[in-house]
């Protein structure tokens, strides 16, 4: 029986451990970057608008990559719908039996709107999609010749149909996915802190 070469096994284990370590370091650095961006909502969205604008300007001046732009737009539309949808869908009857449905009367307890896709994940996934689209514009392989007005028309129709369905869902179950403009209630004032003269 031939003897096994243990040195080759050790070197492959060291290489795989090095790859795992490098991946773990990358994941930690990536999460630290996301944690730094989390409290800066306005700055994140301004950066997002600037990146999308740069991407659209690049596509406009290059006169191409319309299919990539369409794919990025469809992905962003799907993410936007998930952003507008409640985490616990009130259309599901078995959730209502557990008492997890959205409040429908003003006398019910206030529960904040919980999204299926949180704002930070929505921002991150759309940023990643635009960056991938931007990267694709550097390769002619992705520049598939298409008649772009049909893609624009199809995207607009798809957007309108999808949003109509989502708005009907909001009206039917009486929820608003945005906190801007909602009534905010303050607790009772503490009577022990009242200053008497």
Overall body shape? globular
What oligomerization state is this entry in? single chain
Distance between the termini: 99 Å
Averaged pLDDT:
79
Number of helices: 6
Percent of residues in beta strands: under 5%
* Domains, number: 1
Largest sheet: none
Number of strands: 0
pLDDT < 50 stretches: none
Instruction: Indicate the percent of residues in helices.
Output: 55-70%
Order of helices and strands, N to C? HHHHHH
| Rg from alpha-carbon coordinates | 25 Å
Which structural category do the helix and sheet elements fall into?
mainly alpha
Key traits:
197 residues, mainly alpha, 6 helices
Write a brief structural summary.
The chain is an all-alpha fold and 197 residues long. Helices cover 62% and strands 0% of the residues. The protein has helices spanning 6-37, 41-62, 66-84, 93-97, 119-136, 148-173.
């Amino acid at each position: 029986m031939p003897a096994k070469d243990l040195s080759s096994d050790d070197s492959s284990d060291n290489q795989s451990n090095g790859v795992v370590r490098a991946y773990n370091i990358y994941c930690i650095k990536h999460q630290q970057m996301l944690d730094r961006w989390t409290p800066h909502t306005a700055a994140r969205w301004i950066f997002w608008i600037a990146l999308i604008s740069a991407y659209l300007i690049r596509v406009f001046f290059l006169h191409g990559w319309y299919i990539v732009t369409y794919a990025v737009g469809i992905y962003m539309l799907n993410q936007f719908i998930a952003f507008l949808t409640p985490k616990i869908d009130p259309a599901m009857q078995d959730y209502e039996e557990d008492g997890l449905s959205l409040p429908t009367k003003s006398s019910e307890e206030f529960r904040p709107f919980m999204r299926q896709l949180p704002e930070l994940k929505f921002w991150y996934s759309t940023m990643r999609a635009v960056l991938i689209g931007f990267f694709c514009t550097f390769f002619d392989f992705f520049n598939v010749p298409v008649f772009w007005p049909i893609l624009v028309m199809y995207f607009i129709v798809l957007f309108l149909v999808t949003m109509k369905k989502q708005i009907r869902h909001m009206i039917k179950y009486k929820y608003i996915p945005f906190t801007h403009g909602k009534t905010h209630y303050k607790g009772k004032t503490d009577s022990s802190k009242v200053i008497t003269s």
